[in-house]
Amino acid sequence: MRSISVLSSVALASLVALGPAAPAAFAGDDDGGTQPDVTSFGFSVTPSTVAAGGTVTLNSTGCDVPTVNVDAPVFDKAQLNEGHSVTRQVYPDAKPGAQYAVTFECNGETGTTTLTIATGRPSPAPVDRGVRAGVGGSVGGTDPALLAAGGVLIAGALGAGYVRLRKRRTDAA
Fold first, then answer.
1. Which parts of the chain span the membrane according to its record (predicted)?
2. pLDDT of residue 89
3. What are the 10-residue block averages of pLDDT along the chain, 173 residues in total?
4. pLDDT value at position 149?
5. Cβ 56 vs Cβ 43: under 8 Å
6. Are 53 and 89 in contact (CB under 8 A)?
7. What does the pLDDT read at residue 142?
8. CA angle centred on 149, ends 143 and 151, rounded to 5°
9. What pTM does this model have?
10. 31 within a domain of the structure (yes/no)
């Protein structure tokens, strides 16, 4: 009997914690314009938290006209054509921890969502230099110590081969 009361307590605590978030889940539904940011079309910014200099994907669904305009003070303006998503790079000088309003406009109707800039030190963007295939790794540069060691090994191999060849000739005679 005790496990049922613990389970019901956990369920009740979950409902209390998630209850205020439920109206936000239906932000794309049309309520006739009585609530802010409730539109007849859906829109999203993914991810909703991004590091300065990172990229976000903008998406809109259910707009009656083929073009949705997207504007925010933290990236360049965008146009979503016929439900296609678009990516935008967040300005590198965006303030960490700040929240910016991203406005979607469809046929005169606007909706807004929030984009949060992540705090902490941003990781450097990866540099795509391609694959170093087919050259055996020799593109990385020259190291004088490695060149000298290679030269010594080659000279030693040639010397050992010469000595062995001379020894074979003297044994045959």
1. 145-165
2. 92
3. 44 42 41 55 89 90 86 90 86 90 89 88 62 59 84 94 83 67
4. 92
5. no
6. yes
7. 73
8. 100
9. 0.49
10. yes
Q: Which two tokens stand for residue 67?
A: 């073009």
Q: Hey, CA dihedral for 163, 164, 170, 173, is it positive or negative?
A: negative
Count CA within 13 A, CB hemisphere, residue 105. Answer: 10
CATH number of 52's domain? 2.60.40.1930
Distance CA 37, CA 110 (A): 7
Its domain, for residue 37, covers 26-117
pLDDT digits (tens, 9 = 90+) for 58-77: 998 888 788 889 999 999 99
Evaluate whether residue 155 is within a structural domain.
no
Looking at the 3D structure of the chain, how many domains does it have? 1
